Amino acid sequence: MTESQDPTVEALHALRAGPNVADVLDYWCRRQPDAVALQFPDQTVSFAELASRSGQLARRLKHAGVAEGSRVGLLELNTPAYFYLFFALARLGGVLVPINFRLAPAEIDFIAADAELKLLFVGPAFDPMVPALGSLDPASIIRLAARSTSQKWFGSWGRPTSIESAAAEADLVQLYTSGTTGNPKGVVTDHSRYLGFVEAVIKAGWGAYSPGHKQLVAMPMFHVAGLNIAMLVTLQGGTNVVLPAVDPEAILKTLDAEKIQSTLMAPAVLQMMVQHPLAKLLSFDHLEEVLYGASPISEALQAKVADTFDCKLVQLYGMTENLGGGTYLGTAEHAPERGLLRSCGKAYEGSELIIVDGDGKQVPTGQVGEVLTRSPWTMKAYWNRPEETREALEGGWLHTGDAAYMDENGYVFIFDRLKDMIVTGGENVYPAEVENVLAGYPGVRQVAVIGVPDDTWGEAVKAVLVMGEAEELDLAGINDYASQKLAKFKLPKSYDVAQALPMNATGKILKRQLRKQYWSDKDRQVG
After folding, report:
1. CATH at residue 451
2. 294: left (phi > 0), else alpha (psi -120 to 50), else beta?
3. Which residues, at least 6 apart from 433, have a Cβ–Cβ distance to it below 8 Å?
């Protein structure tokens, strides 16, 4: 996006080309057929090719029995299959079910059964998992390891036979929650919700891109953030440069070589990037914007990212249930003098956000409570879970489970997940607040704060740290540092040093795994 060009007008015009996301693709196919829509390490795909191949794939899927409402799974790295299936199923009213490839085979099999998949496409890297998927008819599993099979479904074809697009109310995608506290749930959204969120993002400014804008996609597309950021650029006529998986070295080289203008990364990935030797050697002059989200970020890491890439920063907060569209903190709000670096920003235009207490009553400004949101892009439902849907959307509000407060200007400050809150001696401690302080101590690369059993206080605060190479933890030093910034009851009573922290594919630290060893012999389980 150039300084003299406002892309918002054409972007919104494109979104209104039809009620279906495939209609938006068709708009760009007519507008710029030869422009590059997708760039992979081994191939490029123009808008005409993307429209043609997804249209022909829609015909093949229809012949295979896929109809409106059919669920089709994809277990694959970031490859063209994601884009072809997304738009092909969109035309038919079919539903894409992206599957987290880092799950165990039994967990993948659970999702396949829960979603009642009509078909499951399995990429070559995950072909060995197929025998463990007992819930599916083998005939419904399409193994793409064989080149002939891959070509049959995703090869090059001529112009597609016209297929009438499904209605705006048709289901579009079913994304499964991470399942860190139980079996994952399928979050269903439709075309109108999806396009409504894209429109809100464009109006917010940070996500308004001109045709030809170059973006790097490396975060996994089975996650709401990875899928959304990729489709956001495609639906505005931009170019997605796609890496198959997260690789800090490959990301840095691609940012430099391809003159990338924007990207989205989880804080854990940003941490690996700024610490990589190449970060000081390569050029990032074209990088205009780094988006981050999916987990809390420390002020120390924010500063390192800003210094390394010298670009705009935008923070995104949300959850799968609202397409990641809770709040955003724009570039101007990242100025240190604004005092908002701890905030995740304000709600989008067209949405609402309130903070409530345990009785569901709105709390005063500055008081911590649960975040509730309401927007046109809030999920349609949890798939086949009416009771849990009613609970999550009680009173017409999405109950996030996040603890936060709002200031007098409407900026939201997330403290933590309510389930991660530590109660020690009757005082509430939010781990994210403690983590933010400890992350600024020299030598600390990563930190997770959890509650562990304590005979006196009920729970005690424990910090698990990952230190930099050749760095040793100075207990006296870190305690003195933290005591200058935190109340005494918030200070860790103990520290552990680990080689790495357990994380899921999107960079969220799995605190339930960290806590398990301390609570396994207790009647009360935390988290």
Report:
1. 3.30.300.30
2. left
3. 415, 416, 486, 490
Residue 239 has pLDDT above 90, yes or no: yes
The chain-wide mean pLDDT, for the chain, equals: 89
Is residue 515 in a domain? yes
DSSP 360: S
35-44 burial: b if 16+ Cβ within 10 Å, else e: bbbbbeeeee
Query: 490 lies in a domain?
Result: yes
Cα separation, 131 vs 148, in Å, equals: 21
List, as one string, the DSSP characters of 413-460: EEEEEGGG-EEETTEEE-HHHHHHHHTTSTTEEEEEEEEEEETTTEEE
Q: How many CB atoms lie within 10 A of CB 343?
A: 24
Contacts (Cβ under 8 Å, ≥6 apart) of 209: 1, 7, 11, 215, 232, 233, 236, 238, 262
3-state secondary structure of 354: strand
pLDDT at 198: 96
CA atoms within 13 A on the CB side of 424: 22
HSE at residue 228, side-chain half, CA atoms within 13 A, is 32
From the number of C-beta atoms within 10 Å of its C-beta (0-12, 13-18, 19+), residue 138 rates as exposed
Closest CA to 132 of 75, 206, 63: 75
Residue 432 is assigned to a structural domain of this protein: yes
Query: Tokens 């933010």, residue?
Result: 436
**Token digits for 426?**
């009757």
For residue 124, tell me if it sits in a domain: no
The whole-model pTM stands at 0.83
Number of domains observed in the structure of the chain: 1
Nearest to 82 by CA among 147, 173, 10: 173
User: Does 465 have pLDDT greater than 70?
Assistant: yes
pLDDT tens-digit map of 198-231: 999 999 989 999 999 999 999 999 999 999 999 9
Based on C-alpha coordinates, what's the Rg of the chain?
23
- Which residue range(s) make up the domain with 487? 421-519
Report the distance separating Cα 139 and Cα 362, nearest Å: 53
